[in-house]
Amino acid sequence: MADVTQLIHDYLRHNKKFPHVFCAGCGHGIVLGSLIRSVHALGLPKDDVVLVAGIGCSGRMAVYVDFNTVHTTHGRALTFATGIKMANPKLKVICVMGDGDAMSIGGNHLIHAARRNIGVTALILNNQIYGMTGGQCSSATPQGDISMTTPFGSLEKAFDIVDMCKAAGASYVARGTSFHAIQLDRLISSAIMHPGFSVVEVFSPCPTQYGRKNKFRNAVDMYKWLKANTVKVETLKEPDQKPADGRIPIGVFRDVEEPGLEERYFELQRKLMGQNR
What is the rounded CA–CA span in Å between residue 94 and residue 57? Predict the structure, then answer.
């Protein structure tokens, strides 16, 4: 593993204010570290990487990393990412969004990015709430849980991000957590190198807005909960293995190599140009 100090020096913008704005115990900082380690391990030149981010806590990642970066409007990160990939397919385009950004305000864009199988990597940091804008209920807040807009418990079912992305057509779909950091490095690395639309959902604890409203004493309890309530998807496939029993499966749920929208587009362009000669 690369020296941490060297990674910080090589991949973070030092003219930005540090320490970062993430609250103590927030999982987003762990995801940021995982993203940097993944890019470094793959040997990708920084100029070949584009990080697109929307609005929310996760959006700050675009401010800190020394890649090509775009900080976009709320819910529209994938539209910008799609345009960048279509304009220059050689770039590795990574789109970082929160659950509200990706699933609520930007849900329509997520569905169609998956349907098109555009060659973009979507990192969906699921803290199960709108963390930056006041702690409102999101479309990933579990039914019955408390938020600023559901003080007596949410009456709505939460989206299953993995199931929805699979159904919409994403060719690589995975789920990890900020507790399982080593596994997360592998998932992000695989997603970045995968052709077509790749999605990594990351359960990332929000002690400030979600945790304290839902009776977690502190951030440590939230990470202990993730440890106790997740199970590797490979384990569930083993003979005589018990059902998930409410635990959250983590790992890779789909990995199919299919040409991305940008590949199909430029292939069509080559055919048409050949016909017109």
Answer: 16
Of 175, 183, 180, 178, nearest to 199 by C-alpha is 175
pTM for the model: 0.93
Which of the listed CATH numbers 1.20.58.2190, 3.40.50.970, 3.90.550.10, 3.40.50.150 matches domain 4-234+243-275?
Answer: 3.40.50.970
Considering only CA atoms, which of 119, 104, 250, 112 is closest in space to residue 172?
119
Q: What residue spans define the domains of the chain?
A: 4-234+243-275
CA distances from 102 to 21, 84, 145 (A): 21, 18, 20
Q: Are strands 49-53 and 92-98 parallel, antiparallel or unpaired?
A: parallel
Tell me the two tokens of residue 153. Answer: 């418990």
pLDDT digits (tens, 9 = 90+) for 33-72: 999 999 999 999 999 999 999 988 999 999 999 999 999 9
